[in-house]
Amino acid sequence: MKSIITIAQYDLLRSVKERESFLIGLLMPALMMLLLGLAQSNNSATIYIDVVDNDHSDLSRRLVALYQEQMSGEDASFVICPYDGGAPDGCGLPETITSSTANDRLENIESSGLLVIPAGFGDALKAGEDAAVEYRRSGDLNAPTLAEQQIQSVLSQMNGSLAIARVTLDTLPADQHDAAFDIVLDRADAAWQQRPVAVQTEATTEDATTNGFNQSGPGMALMFVFIFVLNAATMLVADREIGTLQRLYTLPMGKWHIIAGKLLGRYLFGVLQFTILIVVGTMMGVEWGSNVPGIVLIVIVFTFTSTALGLLLATLVKTSAQAGNIALLMGLTLAPLGGAWWPMEIVPNFMQIVGHLSPIAWGMDAFGELMYYGGGVIDILPQMGALLLMGAIFFALGVRSFRYE
User: Fold this and answer.
1) Residue 310: is its pLDDT beyond 50?
2) Is pLDDT at 305 greater than 60 in this prediction?
3) At a CB cut-off of 8 Å and minimum separation 6, what does 280 contact?
């Protein structure tokens, strides 16, 4: 056992001291995690919607007011920027507004959407005619869809109030319509505020947060550890190519002690890499969960499975170049397949089943239990069991097929 630890310690220190291993295995993944965190933390979650009122009627102002009221009831994600005054400072509207200002802001993605109320909007509605507003959206993928949903909600409320007003006015003499219109519409709007049915939303746990970095942070950590530890195959094959293993075999210890020591050294380097990535991710806002033993268990078990797969890969290749290329290809294939690049929930069911052929999928599931559902060690035992089973199979096949010479 002492000989295994001695070889592992030597290989670990050599990996840390070697410039290539330090740069590719430790520094580059940490920098990638840092840059990704900075990029996502600088992304503003605020969605600005510009409003151009070309009608300036009571009904157009009512629409804008309803829109602002709707947004004030939401979180701070949506900000309405009316061009005729009263826009919040965060809108960033220029002092001089021209006819092209709104379109320019939309094209430059300074705003996510533009609502244009045409002239004659109010007169048409008072006359019982239909009127249309124009909504333009930016090329951003998510924000315009959310903004359009909010606009549709406001328009549905206003259409309902107008429908009630028209039905009510039909019961009155025609000469009273103009005088009663605003009164009836006010009462209809007030009725909208008294909603007998409400939706009560509860989170799965009090602290569950699903920001983008909580998905990409663990995925990046698992991917980098998987790729680098998988390169244990490259190390073993390279040592065999240059005769290092053959010289070590002359020492008074069993051959399996030497292989076990080298694998243990690569395993410990993977644990070190994983730990650094977790620390950097925490600094950048990744919420790994509050159950530290669960996080430690994932690190230990996932790194073991990756190391065992590296041993198996070493038995299937002839040269260290082949091992390195295949390790990289496997990492870049199994990472997205296992949900490191995007949530598994967005892919079809059969792809979720196929994806769990990747150890990374089980690692992502385990982190999900800790991060989103407040789970502990007991909750991630099924995922850890799957990883241990994979690791045991990889290790058994690798030991059986490994060529010492």
Assistant:
1) yes
2) yes
3) 30, 33, 34, 37
Which one of 24-33, 142-151, 330-339, 377-386 scores highest in mean pLDDT? 377-386
Domains of the chain, CATH where assigned: 2-41+210-401 (no CATH), 44-193 (3.40.50)
Task: Report pTM.
Answer: 0.60
Residue type, 401: S
Written as six digits, the tokens of 21 are 């291993």
From the number of C-beta atoms within 10 Å of its C-beta (0-12, 13-18, 19+), residue 237 rates as buried
Q: Where are the beta strands (DSSP E) in 309-371?
A: none
Phi, psi of 311 (to 5 degrees): -65, -45
> What is d(CA 304, CA 296) in angstroms, rounded to the nearest whole number?
12
Per residue in 71-127, pLDDT (tens digit) is 665 555 678 888 877 777 778 787 777 768 888 888 887 787 888 899 998 888 888
Determine how many CB atoms are found less than 10 A away from the CB of residue 334.
Answer: 22
Sheet (strand 78-82) strand order: 78-82, 47-53, 113-117, 134-137
Q: How many helices (H) and strands (E) does the chain have?
A: 17, 4
Give the confidence band of 198 by pLDDT, cuts at 50, 70, 90: low
Instruction: Tell me how far apart the alpha carbons of residues 17 and 370 are, in angstroms, rounded to a whole number.
Output: 34
DSSP H stretches of helix in 73-211: 101-107, 121-126, 143-169, 177-193
Q: Are 144 and 48 in contact (CB under 8 A)?
A: no
Average of per-residue pLDDT across 129-158: 74
Structure tokens at 195: 């909603």
Q: How many angstroms separate the CA atoms of 4 and 209, rounded?
A: 43
Instruction: Decide if 151 contacts 115 (C-beta within 8 A).
Output: yes
Residues in CB range of 221: below 8 A, 6 or more apart? 29, 33, 274, 277, 278, 281
Q: What is the dihedral of CA 356, 326, 308, 370, to 10 degrees?
A: -40
Taking the alpha carbons at both ends of the chain, their separation in whole angstroms is 23
